[in-house]
UniProtKB/TrEMBL annotation:
Belongs to the drug/metabolite transporter (DMT) superfamily. Small multidrug resistance (SMR) (TC 2.A.7.1) family. Gdx/SugE subfamily. It comes from Comamonas nitrativorans. InterPro entries: EmrE-like, Small_drug/metabolite_transptr, Small_multidrug_res. It comes from the Bacteria. This is Guanidinium exporter. It is found in: Cell membrane. Keywords: Cell membrane, Membrane, Transmembrane, Transmembrane helix, Transport.
């Protein structure tokens, strides 16, 4: 169950990063509210997952899901560049996440 909480926390990290971008520096009330709710839920689920998962593993997986997820949303939704070097960097992060999971 801790892994499910952790994955959901990571997905919510992507949500709050995206809505923070849409909030235009917290000047758009609706997106700002979604950001704060998603952020709070993400941290809460991370905390619950950390009850039974090692700190290093949980935090690395959480930030990795957030980083790669935000990267993908940036490309697919916001039209950001998908250069070969950026894609390689994201693949290296995913590889690190897989190794972290295997090591725990």
């Amino acid at each position: 169950m801790a892994w499910m909480y952790l994955v959901l926390a990571g997905v919510l990290e992507v949500v709050w990063a995206y809505t923070m971008k849409l909030s235009a520096g917290f000047t758009q009330l609706g997106y700002s509210a979604i950001t704060l709710v998603a952020m709070t839920a993400s941290f809460g689920l991370l905390a619950v997952a950390m009850k039974s998962l090692p700190l290093g593993t949980a935090y690395t997986i959480w930030t990795g899901i957030g980083a790669v997820g935000a990267f993908v949303v940036g490309i697919l939704v916001l039209g950001e560049a998908a250069s070969p070097l950026r894609i390689l960097a994201a693949l290296l992060i995913v590889g690190g996440l897989v190794l972290m999971k295997l090591a725990s």
